[in-house]
Amino acid sequence: MVPEPIGLQSDTVINNFRVTPTFSVYCRPMIDLRSDTVTVPTPAMLKAMAVAKVGDDVFLEDPTINALQAYAADLFEMEASLFFPSGTMANQTAIKVHTRPGDELICDAGAHVHYYEGGGIASNSGVSVSLIQGNQGVFTAADVFERIRPDNVHFPSSRIVCIENSCNRGGGKVFPIVNIQEIAEVCRQNGLKLHMDGARLFNAMLAEGSAPKQHGKLFDSISICLSKGLGAPVGSLLLGSRNFIAQARRVRKVFGGGMRQAGYVAAAGLFALQHNIERLKEDHIHAQSLARKLAELPYIDVVFEQETNIVIFQLDVSVDTAHFLAYLQHFGIMALIMGPRMVRFVTHLDISPIDIATVEQVLEDYRI
Ligand SMILES: Cc1ncc(COP(=O)(O)O)c(C=O)c1O
After folding, report:
1. % helix, strand, coil for the chain, step of 5
2. Which pLDDT score is estimated for 368?
3. Percent of the chain's residues with pLDDT above 90
4. 86 in ligand 1 pocket by Cβ < 6 Å?
């Protein structure tokens, strides 16, 4: 049943918000644009989960987990992969396997591994970081080269470079494959490992037109998330060589991530990889539309360059961020604060074209 629209005849104050006559929005449940992690499984995904064959994965006996791991490794043409409860655990495991205490990791200042993983690089691996101020998360081979430490007892040992693709705090910016190839070459020449946090790699590949096997060739390890745009409720995969994955399995166990009959959730991940990649394009179109609308609005200062499913924008100094978010929430729209006056919208599987039209109307009607 289509819900009744609220149509307004004149300027009206609703809960302290003045709303203009152009405003017409359907009363409906939340339009949750905080993150693409908020999706819930579709009926088809739930069905795949319900009929999954399972076993004890610590004994390597879960056929669905084994099938998911083999499917992902084939897709990227990498030797092996390992199922994880989260992207954070997959990244932190990769860093721990690749490094020793006293080593140093090179990444962008906004990289999830550094910015959002609870200081795990230091506490799990005893590793320091050398940060690059990239362009929306993207950096160059020259940036990496500059940060490689001389072989001298005073310095930590440069050991690993971490690339995030797409770049979350960079507004979903794609890390171009050309940059990655040049960085991979610098890593090869200087004995550095190269890890990709590919939580949203499928978004990046679709936007750029690159293929999983191109990335598989360039990295020592790649993590991908099944529970973001791909719509699975839980799960990430770490990919690498057979030897690397054997070590990662050990670290995962020590981190408390050894799982038993997790094939029920692996089934959702397999379903996501088989059915939900192409449709990410719809999320990109929705994000484009939001970015275009935001760019027209007088109370928005900056809209970050938008390429995938994330839109980050900065409100004008005259706007109170809390007021703006409360206004959105009043109309059932949720967004995330990313910094002073910085707000993030993320489009995903549970956001429809009608939702986007609704958000755009609500944005247009905002008055400071
Ligand atoms: C770029 C990036 N990497 C890693 C993660 C971690 O994923 P998880 O929440 O599954 O630990 C996230 C989560 O949002 C992310 O955006």
Report:
1. 40, 20, 40
2. 80
3. 92
4. yes
- For the record, the structure tokens of 198 come out as 């590919």
The answer to whether the CB of 120 falls within 8 A of the CB of 93 is: no
Nearest CA-CA partner of 215 in 205, 227, 228: 205
Indicate which atom in ligand 1 lies nearest the CA of residue 35.
14
Between 176 and 367, the more confident residue is 176
Q: Is the pLDDT of residue 276 over 60?
A: yes
- For ligand 1, say whether the CB of 199 is within 6 Å of any of its atoms: yes
The angle subtended at Cα 242 by Cα 236 and Cα 248, nearest 5°, is 50
Query: Dmax over Cα atoms in the chain, in whole Å?
Result: 74
Q: Are the C-beta atoms of residues 223 and 197 closer than 8 Å to each other?
A: yes
User: How high is the pLDDT of residue 29?
Assistant: 63
Atom of ligand 1 nearest to the CA of 90: 11
Residue with tokens 């997790």: 262
Tokens of 12: 């009206």
Could you identify the residue written with the tokens 């679709």?
206
Distance CA 190, CA 22 (A): 60
Cα 296 to averaged position of ligand 1 atoms, centre (Å): 31
Q: Which atom of ligand 1 is nearest to the CA of 227?
A: 10
Going from the Cα of 11 to the center of ligand 1, the distance in angstroms, rounded, reads: 42
